[in-house]
């Protein structure tokens, strides 16, 4: 059950904050198209939440609205991160507040090496993990530090995109289909890294078409269907519920 965050008590907000990240009655539009239709869910500190649903359900739109991108337009609702009102922010302010969106296309910057991509992420404070620490987490990136980022394999580019997010001091990682187009053995590698990142206390929302893999990693799951939430509960519950999987995830 979601409870509307109530910060009216000033310093006592910790008593009323329902969760680390709280989405409340969010509605999002692309122009006239009503896509995210009043969704509410919570993400607890340090957990991995799988955000699932069929193609076009509104998963990417939800992540973009949380990250406060210019589109979609969030016309109604609230988003709170660690007592900060994200819904009043622009994307650069949300980024400074601790939101990191790793988009599906990974957005590696052309013309820059792996290391330059990481350095660029650290150009302004707040700086997160050191480059040495990132290379410990991603030894493949260390080996390829002088290689141009866009020439990396798909899996390596995904690692670079995640590393770049962690190069900044973030509170929540929003991952849009990190396993897309990757061989199972590379998915294993990225999954292992996501577990290590979780152990470091980072909170993650994981959007994935590969629902089984996402559910095996996640603590909880939210399932979207045409812009509304049809399930909010534990990840294992979805794995065990054949009906739910067949109806909304086609697995
Ligand atoms: N820029 C846009 N302008 C207009 N409509 C859009 C735009 N982006 C997405 N949509 C529409 O919004 C709906 C939700 O799209 P969204 O990308 O959020 O789905 P998704 O759940 O991420 O799907 P997928 O699994 O295919 O990535 C779809 O009907 C899509 O066509
Ligand atoms: Mg999407």
TrEMBL record:
<keyword id="KW-0029">Amino-acid transport</keyword>
<dbReference type="GO" id="GO:0015658">
    <property type="term" value="F:branched-chain amino acid transmembrane transporter activity"/>
</dbReference>
<dbReference type="InterPro" id="IPR027417">
    <property type="entry name" value="P-loop_NTPase"/>
</dbReference>
<protein>
    <submittedName>
        <fullName>High-affinity branched-chain amino acid transport ATP-binding protein LivF</fullName>
    </submittedName>
</protein>
<keyword id="KW-0813">Transport</keyword>
<keyword id="KW-0067">ATP-binding</keyword>
<dbReference type="GO" id="GO:0015807">
    <property type="term" value="P:L-amino acid transport"/>
</dbReference>
<dbReference type="GO" id="GO:0005524">
    <property type="term" value="F:ATP binding"/>
</dbReference>
<dbReference type="InterPro" id="IPR052156">
    <property type="entry name" value="BCAA_Transport_ATP-bd_LivF"/>
</dbReference>
<dbReference type="InterPro" id="IPR003593">
    <property type="entry name" value="AAA+_ATPase"/>
</dbReference>
<dbReference type="InterPro" id="IPR003439">
    <property type="entry name" value="ABC_transporter-like_ATP-bd"/>
</dbReference>
<comment type="similarity">
    <text>Belongs to the ABC transporter superfamily.</text>
</comment>
<keyword id="KW-0547">Nucleotide-binding</keyword>
<dbReference type="GO" id="GO:0016887">
    <property type="term" value="F:ATP hydrolysis activity"/>
</dbReference>
<feature type="domain" description="ABC transporter">
    <location>
        <begin position="21"/>
        <end position="251"/>
    </location>
</feature>
<dbReference type="Pfam" id="PF00005">
    <property type="entry name" value="ABC_tran"/>
</dbReference>
<dbReference type="InterPro" id="IPR017871">
    <property type="entry name" value="ABC_transporter-like_CS"/>
</dbReference>
